[in-house]
Amino acid sequence: MYLTRLDIRNFRGFEQTRLAPEPGFNLITGGNGAGKTTLLEAMHLMSYGRSFRGRVRDGLVRGGTDQLEVFVEWRVGDPATDREVSHRAGLRHSGSRWEGRLDGQDVSNLGELCAALSVVSFEPGSHALVTGPAEVRRRFVDWGLFHVEPGFLPLWRRYARALKQRNALLKARAPMRHFEPWDAELVLAGEALDSYRASYIHEIAALFSELVSVCAPSLGRTCLEHVPGWRREEVSLADALLLSRDRDLLTGHTSVGPHRADWRICLASLPGREALSRGQAKLIALAALLSQAEHQAAKRGSWPVFLLDDLGSELDRAHRERVLGRVLAYGAQIFVTGTEADVPGLTGIEHPVFHVEHGSVQRLQ
Ligand SMILES: Nc1ncnc2c1ncn2[C@@H]1O[C@H](COP(=O)(O)OP(=O)(O)OP(=O)(O)O)[C@@H](O)[C@H]1O
């Protein structure tokens, strides 16, 4: 999968700009604050329905305007015909809500956009995947599943709807019989959701360990463990919901279930993730992101687009070269940002350079 066009309007510092990237490696250069990260952020937004730098009200829309737009075109191989197919998608935020279009049709849910375009981003905040809250890790697993399991998104929606209804009943202290249909729905969707997530973690775990041994060998042996969100070894989800109902009535929300799931990284050489340096946490996060991408490529037959923001300041030279060596071997589309055009590890590789300055992007070579 590779992007052929990115158009943005009123997005952070850009009034209007266009990027026409190449299928392979693309370098984006510019001074501090020029807008390099903003270009990657726009691509990320199309694949996740959210920015990696906060919400709309945190400055996504250009100051003095009230509507941002992002438009992308990409091509992807169709395994059925062995041909490439073009897609296009647009996202607009006009004051209060997002509106998305995919191949000329309005999308009712941004999840449809996210499932169509696959982008893997590594940026200065990516260590949150290791050191941040469980919600970040759940999103990582769910995003991976949206891209490899067509049945996952409808199931995820069913679960989210049932959970919302159950929480509303808890808050209203509704009679017990009102809970029954929603608890049944929660159990049905929840058990299936959990088994998708458990298999997913199991499938990427081997890739993850291998990637850590390549990208950060000093960390030693690692593994990944799925944490379901209730004591699954001891009770079914139905029983867990029943057992927690009195407590849930007091707090007004459902305290057990897959919406509380997480995954854990076990490190043979360290007591826990708290012992990781920031740089090590970043390398582990990167290994997790790459294992997700490798898993997706194996399942779908096409690589996601890679966004590597400010790799130069995130990793030391040796680790950067190891990581770049691995990612370059994929033959996927890659965007790397940097203040300089000189990226160690890229000698001898022909690639375009896009320079960002004064709110516009110019191709230098
Ligand atoms: N809502 C907004 N309206 C106008 N300008 C904005 C808005 N949000 C961000 N900016 C500006 O857009 C630029 C975006 O910077 P961005 O983080 O993309 O730059 P960068 O090239 O990645 O910088 P660095 O190398 O320092 O990381 C900054 O100059 C910032 O002040």
Structural class: alpha/beta
CATH superfamily of the largest domain: P-loop containing nucleotide triphosphate hydrolases
Q: Which ligands, by name, code or SMILES, are bound?
A: adenosine-5'-triphosphate
DSSP strand tally: 14
Contiguous low-pLDDT stretches (5 residues minimum) are none
Please write the CATH class name of the largest domain: Alpha Beta
- The topology string of helices and strands comes to EEEHEEEEHEHHHHEHEHEHHEEE
Q: Largest sheet, order of strands side by side?
A: 2-1-4-5-6-7
Q: Could you say how many structural domains there are in total?
A: 2
Specify the overall morphology.
globular
Instruction: Give the second-level CATH assignment, the architecture of the largest domain.
Output: 3-Layer(aba) Sandwich
Report the sheet-strand fraction. 15-25%
Cα end-to-end separation = 23 Å
Number of helices: 10
Profile the largest sheet: 6 strands, antiparallel
- Quick check: average pLDDT? 92
- Determine the fraction of residues in helical runs and give it as a percent range: 40-55%
- Rg (C-alpha, Å): 22 Å
- Per CATH, what is the topology of the largest domain? Rossmann fold
Subcellular location: Cytoplasm
GO molecular function: ATP binding; single-stranded DNA binding
Pfam families: SMC_N
Domain RecF/RecN/SMC N-terminal: 2-340
